[in-house]
Amino acid sequence: MPVHVVQRGHNRAECFRSPLDRRQYLELLQEALVATGCMLHAFVLMTNHVHLLLTPRRAGDIAVLMMTLGRRYVRRFNDRWQRSGTLWEGRYHSSLIDSDHYLLACHRYIESNPVRAGLAASAGSYHWSSHRTNATGEPTGLLTPHPTYLALGATPEERGRAYVRIFECEPDPTAIERIRVGLRQNLPTSQPKRKLGRPRRNGMELSAGAETGADDGSAKKGSEKGSEKGSEKGSEKGSGSISPHAPSNR
């Protein structure tokens, strides 16, 4: 299953100071993808953090990728800018994306990040993301299209047009919030499960809780004993381009 990964700079400090930093990060990312077998579906490089949408080949592959990529990039960043010490904010955050609906919503969330941050007027005008590749449907070397993306159309052109239309719709605030909560809490991002009813009895639909005593039964026992208890439990290959047309300075 795909996983949405975010890694931030330590104390929200910048982790990219120049176009060269970003190009080098993408080069190292591609090498890590090949080494681990992970597939990259979407990405964006912001000033002080990165978003990646990855599907691992095996359990643990994303952890290996992030560790290898992070260490190699930090060494080069520190050498270039004559600094020392850590660059990243501890462990990365991740959220499993377990529905097709939220996969495309996650694509949009990632590639729209520069727009929300005021760095670009549109997702397509930001140079350091996967949007241009996904919006054209043309394969290149960093991104691997997910089956849900491929289902948008029979040809690259059809997929590209359908993908652009996703970004033309009004954003879904519920989807955005679920994605953010999933990342903050390292929990899956998925559609809420609809509570299934039990067979009707005397014309009344019983919930699963009513049958087991979790709802009506508990309330009755609570009123008899004077107490109630409840609990609730709640985790390219082909980029736009490894060297996208870079802005003069970002």
Annotation keywords:
single chain; 250 residues; alpha+beta; Alpha-Beta Plaits; two-stranded antiparallel ribbon; 6 strands; 13% strand; disordered C terminus
Annotate the secondary structure layout:
Elements: E1 3-8, H1 19-36, E2 39-45, E3 49-55, H2 61-81, E4 93-96, H3 100-111, H4 113-116, H5 131-136, H6 147-150, H7 156-168, H8 173-185, E5 197-201, E6 204-207, H9 208-212, H10 216-225
Antiparallel strand pairs: 1-3, 1-4, 2-3, 5-6
Structural features, described:
With 250 residues, the chain is an alpha+beta fold. The protein has one domain: Transposase IS200-like (Alpha-Beta Plaits, 2-Layer Sandwich), CATH 3.30.70. A hairpin with a 3-residue loop joins strand 2 and strand 3. The longest helix has 21 residues. The two termini are 33 Å apart.
Taken as a percent bin, the fraction of beta residues is 5-15%
Which blocks of ≥5 consecutive residues have pLDDT under 50?
199-241, 243-250
Number of helices: 10
Globally, the shape reads: globular
Task: Name the helicity range.
Answer: 40-55%
Please report the total strand number as a whole number: 6
Strand order of the biggest β-sheet: 2-3-1-4
In whole angstroms, how far apart are the ends?
A: 33 Å
Give the class from helix and strand content and strand pairing.
Answer: alpha+beta
Indicate the radius of gyration in whole angstroms.
22 Å
- Tell me, rounded to a whole number, the average pLDDT: 82
> What series of H and E elements makes up the topology?
EHEEHEHHHHHHEEHH
Query: What is the name of the CATH class?
Result: Alpha Beta
Q: What is the subunit organization of this protein?
A: single chain
